[in-house]
Design a protein that fits this description.
With 98 residues, the chain is an all-alpha fold. It is 72% helix and 0% strand. The chain is flat.
């Protein structure tokens, strides 16, 4: 019996609009970080984690169909980055400050 994690993480990349959405979200978050860094000289660091998570997910979904393992590794990396953000926020709430 295959596991649910294996079915969801190591499935074929969907590509198309989902990959474009994730990559556009990552670009938007990195642009926001750059804007705040230039204009206010202080940027929220958590935006980098969100951008990295979205970017890794977008790369995973944009891979060709036969590369299920590579997409799975990128999806796991995205989950690890986002869980790292949640743990950083739990143990260091000042991480949200500008």
């Amino acid at each position: 019996m295959p596991s649910t994690i294996q079915d969801t993480v190591f499935k074929e990349p969907t590509g198309g609009i989902l990959a474009l959405t994730y990559l556009a979200g990552a670009l938007l978050l990195f642009s926001q970080y750059g804007y705040y860094a230039i204009i206010t000289n202080s940027a929220p660091r958590f935006v980098l984690f969100l951008g990295a998570g979205f970017g890794l997910s977008g790369l995973a979904e944009s891979l060709p169909s036969p590369q299920r393992r590579g997409a799975g590794v990128l999806r796991l990396a995205a989950v690890i980055v986002l869980i790292g953000l949640l743990s950083a926020l739990a143990f260091a709430p000042e991480f949200l400050r500008l």
